[in-house]
Amino acid sequence: MDAAGAAAAALKKYPGVVSSVDRDGAVWHVDVIGKNGKHAELTVDTRSGKVFTENADDDSDDDGQNKALAAAKVTAQQAMKAAVAAHSGQVRSVEWDDDDDNGSRYWNVEVQSGDKTTNVHVDAASGKATVSTSDSDDDGGN
Fold first, then answer.
1. Residue 61 pLDDT > 50, yes or no?
2. What does residue 114 show for φ and ψ, rounded to 5 degrees?
3. HSE toward the beta carbon, residue 107, CA cutoff 13 A
4. d(CA 120, CA 13)
5. What is the rounded CA–CA span in Å between residue 121 and residue 34?
6. Who contacts 34 (Cβ-Cβ below 8 Å, separation ≥6)?
């Protein structure tokens, strides 16, 4: 199961908006902000597609990020497609980034091609993908 499949499976179990997807071995960790405003941390098995709820709570200390995420024109799934179109490979992670300093909102998508991982920023309003000038280092956690 790829990142897009994991996001779809998580949303089927916990409807809302995906805020991040990250692969860790044989599972995908998917964070969802539910339609009820609650934050859920879900785990999706890469082989079976089964979804498990790790944690669900009222994420009231989000400083408005949940509202910005819900209002974004580009979803995590659309950001993954745009990132792979800009830089071919497999999505390893996608994360919402709400930069308070300059007001920009974008998705940070890590795309792996061979042994190289590239960061692609996807604008949350336009869907424009920009390949980052610096590649991420493997932190050993993936």
1. no
2. 65, -125
3. 32
4. 28
5. 24
6. 14, 15, 16, 40, 56
Please report the beta strands in the chain, taking only residues with DSSP state E, as ranges in sequence order: 16-24, 27-34, 38-45, 51-58, 90-98, 105-113, 116-123, 129-131
- pTM recorded for the entire structure: 0.83
Instruction: State pLDDT tens for residues 95-112.
Output: 998 765 666 789 999 999
For 120-123, the CB contacts below 8 A with 24+ separation are 120/82, 120/83, 120/86, 120/87, 121/97, 122/74, 122/78, 122/79, 122/82, 122/83, 123/74
**Predicted confidence (pLDDT) per residue in 33-56, tens digit:** 987 778 899 999 999 999 998 887
C-alpha span between 98 and 121 (Å, rounded): 12
The residue type of 102 is N
